[in-house]
Structures
1.
Amino acid sequence: MYIASDRVLWVTEPYAPDWVSLIGGFIMQTDTISVVEPVEDGLWVVSDQTYFFKGDGPENFDVRPKLAYGAVYGTSSKIPYTNDVVWYSN
């Protein structure tokens, strides 16, 4: 499970959503995280810009910036009957 709090994306331990490693169970971003949306191939994370974390977990993520702008906090949504996600940008 992924939990966004300010500039930190916390990653819980497998099958233990209330356990987080304080040593390596997090991914720092340069700005406050406004959107986190999981999809089949990875995880969309938006802070100072839009990133795609491609892979099936933190050990395997290939992080790449995709868009040079951020998002309005809390505006993400899944499009019904598809695997697509959307959010509002500034």
2.
Amino acid sequence: MTYPTDKKYPITQDYGITDTTKLRGEEIYSFFDKKHPGIDIALPIGTPVYACLGGIVVSLEYHRGMGKVLRIRTGNLLHIYAHLDSFNKDFGDSVKEGELIARSGNTICWTVPHLHFEIRDLSVWEVKERPFKPEFKEGLPVQYKKEFEYVCNHNEAIIDLAIKYYGKEEGKKNILENNPFLKEVHSHKSLEIGTKVLII
């Protein structure tokens, strides 16, 4: 897994329990048991940001807590790049490890300009337990799985899962290929809670 910048800028907040989470855990990090779910890397605005792993761009959004955010899925892993200034990729784009994906910014930044980088294991049921400490070393993280099973737990249709995991509506083709039992289900009809969907 490659570092998201061309050189190692200072880390201003590490993963887990930090001085900041001790002070503002209830306010900002309560969703993650008062832990910082990623790392913050101090970057000048406009610094190139690179994909840590190859994958599919599944989300470009303006988040009320993280500003401009780009998310990439690699198998069961979701890597998140936040507080960005601009995007160099679009929904559903395939990216390679080390490829330019964005420029750093200061959108909804709580402190100095920085990149918030986070990686989550989507095969873990509890959302608060999905983030793990990133290790930038050769190869894929030990948590990586080429495929994983998603269990529908609320009002979701095939089209929702296509966008969520493939970044665009055309992703429904992948879902139907990998889940033949869904081929007779209308793509906009809510799936029953408990339906297991294989994501590759």
3.
Amino acid sequence: MFLHEIFSALLYILAVDLIYGIIRLVRRKRGNRLPWMQELFRLLLVSYLVGVAGVLLLPRIDAGIWDSGKPYLDFVFPERPEDSGANWTPLRTIGEQIGMILGGDPNGIINLLVNCCLFVPFPVLLGLCFPQMKYRYRFLIPFITIPVCEAIQPFCGRSVDIDDVILNTAGVLVGLLISVLIDRLCAKANKKKS
């Protein structure tokens, strides 16, 4: 199931990147060179945001070829199982996933890592795209995005889990630390140049 979500997210990313690239090229003034590094960072931010939306909020894309040889493309929201309500008990799902790991089920570690790592790139990419942005905004923008995504998920066939918010926020903090390190390395490199 996880591979279907990644495949769908990649298709969304390709479509949006193509549109974004065309818009950026059309809006470019004639004779002006594009600052390629800044454009690359912006493209990465757009790709990342579309990928997160593709995994968390957008319908899964099913594509293939029927036995008759005709191709098909379908958009499917996952069906939430009847027994999967919202989890408002902190650390319950994390505990269950740790139990899965201890029981030898690799899905526990996959779930923990995906939820923790999902939002790590957000503050890093914000810092790369907008180097003058203050650290508090590099934290607050992703931090506010997490509960908004979680609140929308029930309408997309997914369930709300407070542990997702905890793990995603931990990922934002890691991303913020990486962003601070990148800024310091860039500042040192600029000092050596001058």
4.
Amino acid sequence: MNKRKVMTMTTRRSVIQFCNAYLPSGQWYDKHFDFIKDSSLKQRIINEFKSIRFAYKLYSGLDMSGENYYFEVRSQIISYATIYEGIIDYLIFDVYKDNEEVRGMLRSKKTRIINLPQEEKNRLSSPYRSRDGILSIVQSSYIEKNEKQVTFEDKCRIAEKLGLLKKIQLKDKIIDLPSDIRRIYNYRNKIHIFSSKDQDINVDIKLSRMAYRRLEPFLRCINNKLINDEIR
């Protein structure tokens, strides 16, 4: 039986120290994620971010290339998209759940045409009549949607209306934050074994870097909005 090869404890300790050295301090997490009052969700998001950064430094330190580097880049995009979606979901369906825009998003209008018998048509008053006579009556009702039925595109649209997402100034240029986050999420949906063969790895790398660089301004934008709304 083949013996499993493992690195020495000294090497392992050095690698872990190297990767952890690039993680933010505990104060950084307190400052940027403090608006999440669901402690379980907050810890999951923090853990996800820590693991992304740890893996990034591990692969960078090893100077990986080829399929290993591509795997790391794809994993970064998937993980950041998960964080963005988790935070937006929490804000919309928890913090702003009573907002009219959010409540309207969870309802869809259903209409149906009722064709009446001729004798019923004759009894109806003139407001229901057209020049050609009474044809039908339209009956409307509303159907409640499950949160899982709402697309990410609609979530971003509502977040933008609420002011949680918007264009921001980043250094010397204007960044379309809602558009960038949609792009990251949509690209995540395209990443799988059958479509990746057609993808350009240079595009993946740029998007992976953007996913990381947009997180802090994304969190800052949210915190400013919550402060303005006196929610935190």
